[in-house]
Write a structure and sequence with these properties.
Nucleotidyltransferase, domain 5; 3 domains; 6-stranded mixed beta sheet; two-stranded antiparallel ribbon
Amino acid sequence: MKTLTTTEELAAFCEAAARHEYVTVDTEFLRERTYYSKLCLIQLAMPGEDDSTAVLVDPLADGLSLEPLYALFRDTSVVKVFHAARQDLEIFYIDAQVFPEPLFDTQVAAMVCGFGEQVGYETLVRRIAKTTLDKTSRFTDWSRRPLTDAQKTYALADVTHLRRIYEFLAAKLEETGRSRWVREELSVLTTPETYVTKPEDAWRRIKTRSNSPRFLAVVRTLAAFREEFAQVRNIPRNRVFKDDALVELASNKPKSHEELGRSRLLLREARRGDIADGILKAVAEGVACPNDDLPRPDKGRDKLQVNPALADLLRVLLKAKTESAGVAAKLIAPAADLDAIAAGLRDVAALRGWRLEVFGSDALRLCDGKIALAADGSDVRVVALD
């Protein structure tokens, strides 16, 4: 198995790959001790039946530039095939603001083709490639050099079997006319907002029991400080302080280092120095926030008047439709969206695009009393009402 360690070697491989219909891609990275993922290895494979057309790329090698790979990513004549691509794409976008185009994600395609929800690569290898994977190297330290033969074999398998999986799923999508469905799903993966966390918006991911605007104002300033501090120093946000400590601080609103020292949940390192100073400043800013700038969380769905009987009927309809179409149910509509439809909301993903065709149209007809559901043995069928 060949490991590329120079820009020239990578450029030669990418030039050869550009003459093919597709290339499979995977990465190995570390993120336990950093805010941003540390890219440690890239695996690439061109079409073929053996390992001779697959390579490992060492991004830690001195002087190696990934620009030839990014040029291949920009080449729209070559499909870039990943499995569960989100974290891989984040790495490439943060590094070079580039997205592979066109993109094919076998996890998404497998969900559309009836392989279940969040189907793993190992499952697809077993069911489509008819072989098994040795996963013993999965949790090794990919930043250490030299890589062992076991690591290299494991890493290469993530792109060699992916060729057979891609070809099978692409053919299945073409046969069923569902390629457009996958393209719709992948559009969010090639949107920059998916990968950029703005410090001023970080508070929205914090779970709190109180929706008091003044309390949320302090949560907002604390979350913004933590996010910016973690980004600048490239450390995990939980290394600054954890969510439960943030909520405690927003509740107690310490005004001094002495009061800060009484926190039960704050890490020792956060009780002094730059973090402590930043916490006190953030709390003061949140407390002093003008009334017209206080956060106003969207409580619309919390106050939905859900018709429980209709919601249950929508669940039955969804189950019938997904079993008939062979599509994972949660890919079409999670429970919260079904409740929203039953409450009268129409700005719901299940009522747009390909989901409208598979489920949404009949869901609206069911809500309007234009269809009914009837048991037909072990199946459920839709009955039009006059």
